[in-house]
Amino acid sequence: MSNAADTPSLLSLILFTPLAGALVLLFVGSRQVDLIRWIANATAALGFLVSLPLWFLYDSTNPDWQFVEQMEWIPSIGAQYFLGVDGFSVLLILLTTMMGVIAVLSSWNAIQTRVKEYYIFLLMLQTGMIGAFVALDFLLFFLFWEVMLVPMYFLIGIWGSDNRLYSAIKFFLFTLVGSVIMLLGILAVYFYHQDVTGVYTFDITQFHELNIPYDLQWWIFLAFFLGFAVKVPMFPFHTWLPDAHTDAPTAGSVILAAVLLKMGTYGFIRFSLPILPEATQAFVPAVVLLSIIGIVYGALVAMAQRDWKRLVAYSSVSHMGMVMLGMFALTPVGITGSIVQQLNHGISTGALFLLVGVVYERRHTRMIAEYGGLSKIMPVYAAIFLIMTMSSIGLPTLNGFIGEVLILQGIFVVSKTWAFFAASGIVLGAAYMLWLYQRTMFGTVDNPKNENLPDVSLREFATFAPLLLLAVWIGLYPKPFLDRLETSVDKVMMRVNADYTPRFAVAAEGDADATEGAIAVVESAAGPIRGGAR
User: Fold this and answer.
1) How far apart are CA 178 and CA 43, in angstroms?
2) Which residues are CB-contacts of 438 (< 8 A; sequence separation ≥ 6)?
3) Across-strand partners of 83?
């Protein structure tokens, strides 16, 4: 394992910065609303700034866990305070801290009641999400996994819209049931490791080295699947998502779409695939079937929605089905595309929920029929909406295209039928998103309530600016992101696909010149290898 000596506690700093801000807010009077907002925004901005060194200091050529922090936590049961990151978690942490800044800033005018409590819950949620991405101790991971439930429950239940209590309870119960079943799977791995080694530990890195019998793998995979599939969410475990999105405040929907849904896919890649490789391969047909149903069903239901927010929510069901399909193709390029598309979904769908929030603050309605001709009144808003719509449907030169192409390439070599259904989801996605844009932005301004709507303010534009920048950057030059994923994907492939030999294993042989030659040879053949031809 690699530990950056010059940044020995970087992950802890990133992890606890939002929580420190929440603690500061506890001592601020509830009536000092402006001060509360400034402290929350400053904390979120600081949280992003302290996470930025991960981008520059992470060594993409090193397959080991990096920035490792390890100390005793509950020694009697083998639990540790054990943190570390790879390329996948680095990108997700940066996405989380960036979306945290955007979510907090977008709430400036939207939240007028219980402002102090709102920002405390939002910052607590930030710590929970980061903790799940950095934890290398399974019990610590589960702790952060559960911590996320409480703030989101209150964000929906207190600051949500009409059916907020129903949606909050539904979200909580769905996730809690999946989490309890997942905990049984964690304990099964924990006790099996003790049976084999005589050591009680929740060390995820040691679990990655286990060779669990297939019969036990099957049951553990099922337990993990129920926990992670609810979070993704996969069909038919998705029913909580449209309600939660619809009734959550704008910032809650943004965080839910951009980060919380990625907890499920992160769980599959971090735990299910490397710890349970044989069971993963056995479950491929079932997962693929559910993913394909989710892709097509989510897109068709999105097309029928009259509520702007529910349409975007169902689009997430379709997009996350595509992510799962790419992952369970079990090819390097498919898994890489799956991870890239998770980032893209966070960027584009997070922006789409922000866009809904902008008009909702002005009109207090999400009904699509209430709008029309907004491009004449809000031209900057219409331009941002157009760019993020094209990002969502995968227009070349924007980020969505890169993820979709990688996923299609990864699954095409496995099954042309899977690729057909994936492509159909892309076509349907273009249909409902363009139809939404046509109904809201074009035409005449028939509703007099829309005639004097103000365009995007400077503060609102600031929430969109980083998302627009990333959409173009990833679309035109995805290499920095792909480079950071190579060794992480290789480690997973070593476990789940025995026919694949990763680059860093080849590069380990010979002297420096031979190493460079081996890398060059493998890189020149990256197309067929990454396509799963081996």
Assistant:
1) 32
2) none
3) 69, 135
Instruction: Give the torsion sign (CA, 264, 269, 273, 276).
Output: negative
Tokens encoding 534: 């081996």
d(CA 201, CA 80): 8
287: part of which helix (H) or strand (E)?
helix 277-303
Using CB atoms within 10 A of its CB, is residue 245 exposed (0-12), middle (13-18) or buried (19+)? buried
User: SS3 for 71?
Assistant: strand
What does the alpha-carbon distance between residue 281 and residue 252 come to, in Å, rounded to a whole number? 35
Per-residue pLDDT of the chain (534 residues), as tens digits, is 544 444 668 999 999 999 999 999 999 988 899 999 999 999 999 999 999 999 999 998 888 899 999 999 999 999 999 999 999 999 999 999 999 999 999 999 888 889 999 999 999 999 999 999 999 999 999 999 999 999 999 999 999 888 889 999 999 999 999 999 999 999 999 999 999 988 899 999 999 988 999 999 999 999 999 999 999 989 888 899 999 988 889 999 999 999 998 999 999 999 999 999 999 999 999 999 999 999 999 999 999 998 899 999 999 999 999 999 999 999 999 999 999 999 999 999 999 999 999 998 888 888 888 888 898 899 999 999 999 999 999 899 999 899 999 999 999 988 899 999 999 999 999 999 999 999 999 888 888 888 888 988 999 999 999 999 999 999 999 999 999 998 889 888 888 876 665 444 444 344 334 334 433 433 343 343 333 433
**Residues 378 and 455: beta-carbon distance below 8 Å:** yes
Among residues 101, 203, 66, the alpha carbon closest in space to that of 463 is found at: 101
